[in-house]
Automatic annotation (TrEMBL):
SUPFAM superfamilies: Adenine nucleotide alpha hydrolases-like (SSF52402)
Residue ranges crossing the lipid bilayer per the database entry: none
Matching InterPro entries: Universal_stress_UspA, UspA
Domain UspA: 8-149
Gene3D superfamilies linked to this entry: 3.40.50.12370
Family in the record: Belongs to the universal stress protein A family.
Designated name of the protein: Universal stress protein A
Organism: Chryseobacterium aquaeductus
Length: 302
């Protein structure tokens, strides 16, 4: 669980694309405000042959060549970032594993508080079936995740949209939101959103958070919406409210939907063009089996 008011270590994934570079820029700006260190993470794409003896690597020479290219590319990237952000501490990590396993190993070893990853927004048909990399990271990573749209060009959070739609980890969400607001000198926009089924519980939680914000002295606005289509309304409200970031709990209310439908998480990712911060309580996460089904890893440079 992220400690109160604390973002000390940020892991940002890269595949050396413009989308990844934008996520790194976002991570660097956050790290500057929070005095955090940054780990630049890359997972090498290995190829495997499954036979009766188990999984075997194909092409050791190719893997070695990819590793060397990756190390050089990360070294160049680190040098460039150190020149642009001289007050920050950058580290690089290469993992030769499935994407989620490599990330979670690093989370454990380096006590990572936040993962920052770029996202392209709308998923193509194949991604709806297999899952995009950003969606895979969101589902499998054992800490909070910030998804940064490729076209995002604002790296400060002056208007922070905080949603109250489920009851999990609300006190941690308030602490996090206050910390981000303080570091950005921002305003919190509190949005209670519920269906008729959970109206009483969400209303009570929403009113309690309003009291806490008032006591904290933090500048805030508050709104409440009654709807069953929460993802659509949160996205629409964020645009109307000119929000710079949305703070969400990691709970997927519509996880029962088929892979051809948009559950809450996919819908909010696909229809929102500002960063999405998904709060995950590290105490409640479990290691994912990154080798189940298929391997999806970030490609090597070149």
């Amino acid at each position: 669980m992220m400690k109160k008011n604390s973002i000390n270590t940020i892991l940002v994934t890269t595949n050396f694309s413009e989308k990844s570079n934008n996520a790194i820029k976002m991570a660097a700006n956050i790290a500057t405000r929070h005095s955090a260190r940054i780990i630049i993470f890359h997972s090498i794409n290995n190829h495997f042959l499954i036979d009766r003896t188990g999984k075997q690597v194909i092409g050791a020479e190719t893997i070695k060549e990819n590793s060397e290219k990756t190390e050089n590319a990360l070294s160049d990237l680190k040098s460039s970032l150190t020149s642009e952000f001289p007050t920050l501490h950058f580290e690089t990590i290469i993992k030769n594993d499935s994407l989620v396993n490599g990330i979670n190993d690093t989370i454990d070893l380096e006590n990572v508080d936040l993962i920052v990853s770029g996202t392209s927004g709308q998923q193509k048909f194949a991604q709806l079936i297999l899952g995009s990399l950003s969606y895979e990271i969101l589902n499998g990573a054992n800490c909070s995740v910030l998804l940064v749209p490729e076209n995002c060009v604002k790296y400060s959070f002056e208007k922070i949209l905080v949603t109250v739609r489920v009851l999990d980890d609300l006190s941690e969400k308030v602490d996090l939101s206050l910390a981000i607001a303080k570091k950005n000198k921002g305003v919190i926009s509190l949005l209670g959103i519920s269906s008729e089924d959970d109206l009483l519980t969400i209303t009570d939680a929403y009113q309690e958070i309003r009291k806490n914000l008032a006591v904290s002295g933090q500048e805030y606005e508050s709104h409440f919406l009654l709807t069953r289509d929460k993802a659509t309304q949160i996205s629409k409200f964020s645009k109307d409210d000119l929000a710079d970031i949305i703070i969400l709990n990691y709970q997927d209310e519509d996880s029962w939907k088929s892979i051809f439908s948009e559950n809450f998480l996919k819908h909010i990712i696909n229809n929102t063009d500002i960063p999405l911060f998904f709060l995950k309580n590290k105490n409640n996460t479990s290691n994912s089996d990154g080798n189940a089904g298929f391997d999806i890893t970030l490609p090597c440079p070149g």
